[in-house]
Q: What sequence folds into this?
């Protein structure tokens, strides 16, 4: 039987201090939480990612999103699908080496 490894997950947290320096702190939240990842949502996603690209706390944001497994929205310049792919890659690295 294959052993299943449990990856640590933050389940409670206080508001991270880096959020005060976020490039998106005054943006419309709907821009970062589009309905879907295709069609009409694509321009919003691209614009949100552009803002993330100039954000001084992008690494902290992405790390937080991965550790807390944020399932929706743009975090650290990534969509939920991209974060799932990153998490899979991290698990492969952890298992193999
Ligand atoms: S990386 Fe993007 S979502 Fe994260 S704080 Fe910066 S602008 Fe906001």
A:
């Amino acid at each position: 039987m294959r052993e299943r490894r449990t990856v640590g997950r933050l389940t409670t947290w206080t508001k991270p201090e880096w959020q005060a320096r976020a490039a998106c702190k005054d943006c419309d939240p709907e821009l970062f939480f589009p309905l879907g990842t295709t069609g009409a949502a694509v321009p919003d996603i691209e614009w949100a990612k552009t803002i993330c690209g100039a954000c001084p706390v992008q690494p902290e944001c992405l790390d937080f999103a991965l550790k807390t497994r944020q399932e929706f929205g743009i975090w650290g310049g990534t969509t939920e699908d991209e974060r799932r792919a990153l998490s899979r890659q991290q698990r492969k690295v952890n298992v193999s080496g």
Remarks:
- The chain has four helices and no strands.
- The two ends are 20 Å apart (CA to CA).
- The chain has one domain: 17-96.
- The pocket of iron/sulfur cluster is lined by residues 22-24, 32, 51-52, 55, 57-58, 61, 74-77 (CB under 6 Å).
